[in-house]
Amino acid sequence: MSKLRILHTADFHLGVGLKGAETNSIVIQRRHLDFITQLKRISSIAIENECDFVVISGDVFHSFRPSGFLLNEFSRFVASLTENNIYVIVIAGNHDQPRTSRTEAYLKALHEVRAPRFYYFKTPGSITLNGFRSNRKVKFVCLPYLPPSVLDSSKYINLIDETLSELVEEKSEEYDYLVVLAHFYVEGAKIGSLPSYLPIYDVRVPKSIFKRDDVNYVALGHIHLFQELSPSIVYPGSIERMNFGEEDEDKGVVLVEEINGDLKPSFKKLPCRPLITLPKSKFGFTEKVFDLTGVLNPTRKLIEVLSPLNLPKEAIVRLMVKLPYGKGIAKEELTKLMKEKKVMHWFVELVRVRDEDVISHVRPFRDVKDAFKDYIEHVFIKRQGKAFPKDLVDLIVTEGLKIIEEIEREEVP
Ligand SMILES: [Mn+2]
Fold this sequence. Notes:
alpha/beta, Purple Acid Phosphatase, chain A, domain 2, 18 strands, 29% helix, 23% strand, binds manganese (II) ion
């Protein structure tokens, strides 16, 4: 008998797009393949390490209606494990849950097939399974994501706490280890620099509710940065860099091993496609943006600056460029250089120089939600003074953000 090993992963977000490549279908397709490549690597790691279980702590697909291609690739990934006598246990993340009762996530269809050794939890539940290689009995307590909109935060936390206690303490068959799968923002977790994947009104669940003597390991999902909140409460992070905010983050999976009666995690790094924002100190720049405002030929200047650089192969490059209105970069000339540098895809993110009279504040927005919030606050508060009650402005922001999130969730990859 080998010792018990569990592979813990989460946040695949299969089908996620990339800002700056929205209109380039070839790049989008290659990005989708990057994620599929990671699935193949994860499957190999599980098989090579003789794992008995693979647990996926939520957000398998970025949209709850993924493309047929992605659904097919995920199904093949599951089969590559279950055919090797590895159980696959999945919980629903916020991206796996449609809000209306008439729609259903495609992920649930996989569950309805009742494929052997595949388990999907859309609602809280538990299952005790016997590992094929280790002969260890493991009880899995599964806590999928719960949208916070209907409850205030203390009720929300209580509900999670009570559900967890009930499932841990319920009468069940004997087991050797108890593992909790949960998809939440746990208090104290570090979030990356561009956490646009988190719902705006996410509740932070206290770490203390997961710290229980009767729980051996907590397999979390939701936060994309790998981290150990305690030696047994772990976020594995996402499996690929999802945006330029994650360009310096290592991505991987967590191998959980039985050592002297405890379950110990270790991080297994996965190779990732390089995402690079320029200028960047790593490449010898001190400035945050290429300021080409006073330059006669901005394209030539940019080529001059970029020519000596050594870039990793097959990278996606974002160039931060400051230019006045009416000026642009000649793409054709830069494309030649980027091809020589073996860059897979590149784009320019323009920071415009605007007349002070036109707008009083200029700051880069992280995303549509950020821009909307700022716009409403600008129009109703900064411009109108105190003419509008704060409650009303907050309501407009809240409702608007809900609509934007709804649209983003419906996005077809
Ligand atoms: Mn999530």
